[in-house]
Amino acid sequence: MAKTMTKSQVISYLAEKAGIPKKAAASVMAEMVALATKECRGAGQFVIPGLGKAVKANRKARMGRNPQTGEPIKIPAKTVVKFRLAKAFKDAVVPPKKK
After folding, report:
1. Ranges in the chain, pLDDT < 70
2. What pTM did the predictor assign?
3. In terms of DSSP bridges, do strands 52-59 and 45-48 run parallel, antiparallel, or are they unpaired?
4. I want to staple 46 with a disulfide (CB 3.0 to 4.6 A). Which of 3, 36, 68, 99 is the partner?
């Protein structure tokens, strides 16, 4: 399997494709992350058209089990961020099975 691209490799690729300096590409990427964080925290979701959306979701409190001792433990409720992929992106990466 191919190695995952590093942040600097992604920035270099974007800079080359857009014909802009690496510093500008890095700035755009940093602003995108900052905007996504701000929007998720406030509105509860952030959409990247064609890729998917980050959604803030609440998880209920539940009972779990300590895997070492088998003892039941209470897991408290918490807020998490989920990323839901866009259908077009998902179908491009993993084509749907034919019926």
Report:
1. 1
2. 0.74
3. antiparallel
4. 36
